Amino acid sequence: MANLKNVTKKTKAQAMGMHTEVLTGRTQQKFFNPDEAENFYYFGTYDVDFNKRTDLDVKDMTAADANKKIDNLMSQGYGTIVIKNPQGKHSLGVGILNKLNLIFEGSLGYFGIGSCDGPIVRINGRVGWSCAENLMAGKVVIEKNAGSCFGAAIRGGDLICKGSVGARTGIDMKGGTIIIGGDAGAFTGFMMQRGRIIILGDVGINLGDSMYDGTIFVGGEIGSYGSDAVDAELTKNDQDWLKRKLKVAEIGENFDVSKMKKIVAGKKLWNYDNLEPTEKKGAI
Amino acid sequence: MCGIAGLIHRGKSSKVGHELQGMLQALKHRGEDSTGYALYGDTDGKNFIMRFKVGENVGEGSTSVAEDISVYDERKKIVDSYLLEMGAKIVKEERTLPYSLRYEIEYDKKDLLEFSQKIESIPGVEILSMGKSLEVIKDLGNAKMVCDRYNLDKLIGTHAIGHARMATESGVDIKSAHPFWGYPFSDVSVVHNGQLTNYWNNRRALENKGMRFMSECDSELIAVYLAEKMRDGASLEEGMKESLTGLDGVFTYFVATKDSLGMAKDTMAAKPLVLYESDDLVAMGSEEIAIRSILPQEIDTYDPFDGEVKVWQI
Asked: For residue A24, what are the domain limits?
């Protein structure tokens, strides 16, 4: 066993075996090197034409059949697909790793637009729980309300709900931006690690609970702060960014961003491994 | 997982049996061990309707032990004799299935506690519901199977709540199926989706106060909890609001009375609920597809927030 008395505070956690992963930068080298252009494309994606448009009525289809049909239409070069009669079906529009204009004329059930990378999606209706979970890139606009776990674990892209959303919006998010035109429920930003959440209305209890990083902007009232979520100064840069983002998001363009509250991680939990036992109690 | 659904027509009656069947059938993937209906039918309000069982369904994956039909007959005879003894007159009798009965009875006393205790003192007999409008019908299988078995399709009424059950913490049997009657209150029923973590503490406390439990299903606790609050003079809505702190765990539940329908969602909002509200209809369910079974056109729905309690009148 390591002699903990003789190691510095910084390396104590490693010596105790709390850190086992060694980050080598492989992610950046492998996937984000601009010289390796082929890595920006997924195997099996399609070259689509946004001007080539078609309708797809999914009223009598299962979700699996509808998703296969979308894939089939993309393989034929359709870049704009309008889905008719989604009628609250679950798991529609999932796994699209392609540039695509996807329009839903109606509401989706649970897990809509999950695990997507690249499409621009507009939903002229409401969405159920876990919409756009794991979104990597692209833009998703919901015209009405959304259920709980909206934008769970997204890595990138813009996720916009013009109405109100349920609980745990942006739970575990690691990037991207979530914008809510109305109110948001409890535990918004729960354990978020990066990215930004903007709520123009009120938000429920335990906002930003156990957030590691990232930023939450709130225009209305806050039910209560979660563990380790703290206020921060709203800078001029923040306000400029908010104005730009709300304009691009087609939502709250005239909203007075100067009065918004900015919430960030107190980072007591972020440095949790390095805290002494007595300090850990204070952080919780 | 379980699925719940409910609807209330305001200012009119409708085929609520048919409508609720459609809503629950849309949720059958959330559980089809058993399905239950609490239907509030149009009646003249003079007589009590008592739905009760004298045995269990032993088919369709049941965890119950088979009994001979003669045992059911014997229990029924004792029920009839007890009713006569208590001055209750059977006006109409239906025996839909060997173990399931529906009586319309003339009974002029208001306190149903003594009445229910007497009937349920017969081993194997359980009153599923008692009321002047409420009828609780529950059995094993999915919504369509239960609806067909009990001919619920044509029942006309104002409101209804129902439950599609995936059995997790108690057996696959009728006694653990929802809805639960708010014993001993006339016309009160409850359905629930979730888990209550302080079940035994609450149950022991309520049993010490003389309340009755028929199963070990945590959902029954909600019906008993609310009944006890109302017994102490609280309104339905007050009882529901108190339940948000009195009941621990994750839950969404519906409760219905003769003229109202309510919903409550726990403070962590961990269980789903989608709600549609208009001037003449409120419909809600664990998933939007339940509502879409009766309203296929594009509608505005929303998720109630954490700690929300709502009550609607007919």
From this structure: 1-40
